[in-house]
């Protein structure tokens, strides 16, 4: 059904997309009007970061290779101090959501621009959302200062992303699109982008799993990831993201895997309350049922489909359910404790999603 009344407030980054897009680095750097970059990355991606620092030449003031999952405050503080002592006027963040998250933590205090070069499909580069972990708790916020000003998407940089991480990171991006479709502040434009994001990711991911060096498939996935990040940045998230944040935070679970496992079950939970969103997902997947289609896609990708496989203890599911119900995100179907507990039980065993 066409939604005739809405508010759309796009937030825009400059996007340079395509094979070999990294060759535009220097031009994009000068377009930003900056001259002293701090390049940030994880320890695993230090070679790529050093190569990028080399391309920047005298425009690079240093490399900080200590980005870590969920942006620990100690790492953020060290990076902020280094950026200040080097007189950095720009952050070049090369990597996945963890690295871009670290860039955001620096920008939050210093207001210096971020040039992001994403190498996964998580989508953080397109959002003004940040998260910093202190004392075991991840605090998140929304601040336009942390939105990367320029994003270089080069599919060649994703060729090295291991197959399992590619698949789960891609399902994480699909989850952004699914929740954007039934978001409280969705509009026809975001819904169009979200459906297209699912279409490209669902088309590309199985081919990446078959052949991780298939650059066409990588390109399609990265395009889908851009679309997914775009809608994540402009719409609100719902029950799925709340459950994943709760599971991840309380049980220290891997981010993308948790998204992959929970998504089909939340789609089943919300199915009758969000029929238009489900129709979009079906069109994008070429499936008859959205929840089953998402479950089948994950099965085809050969990634974990049960929380049990992640080492979750079944006895924790009650307290996860209770925590997920506190400060809930807006969701199309009202939250029902018993049904959400049943949803988690299905996700725990890796059963097919069902109406709970
Ligand atoms: P990640 O950034 O934690 O990366 C996982 C690992 O993969 C790291 O060791 C990294 O170095 C490595 N890696 C990344 N790209 C690679 C490549 N091309 N080749 C080889 N290795 C590569 O994983 P992620 O899933 O991208 O990010 C997850 C984090 O991002 C979570 O903390 C999540 O909360 C956050 N996130 C934030 C937002 C937001 O809008 N703020 C959105 C999505 C995710």
TrEMBL record:
Coiled-coil zones: none
Lineage: Bacteria, Pseudomonadati, Pseudomonadota, Betaproteobacteria, Burkholderiales
Domain Alcohol dehydrogenase iron-type/glycerol dehydrogenase GldA: 14-155
Gene3D superfamilies on file: 3.40.50.1970, Dehydroquinate synthase-like - alpha domain
Keywords of this entry: NAD, Oxidoreductase
GO MF term (any one): maleylacetate reductase activity
PANTHER family for the chain: ALCOHOL DEHYDROGENASE, ALCOHOL DEHYDROGENASE 4
InterPro entries assigned to the protein according to its UniProt record, in alphabetical order: ADH_Fe/GldA, ADH_Fe_C, Alcohol_dehydrogenase_Fe, MAR
Fe-containing alcohol dehydrogenase-like C-terminal domain residues: 167-348
Name listed for the protein in its UniProt record: Maleylacetate reductase
Family: Belongs to the iron-containing alcohol dehydrogenase family.
Organism for this UniProt entry: Paraburkholderia ginsengiterrae
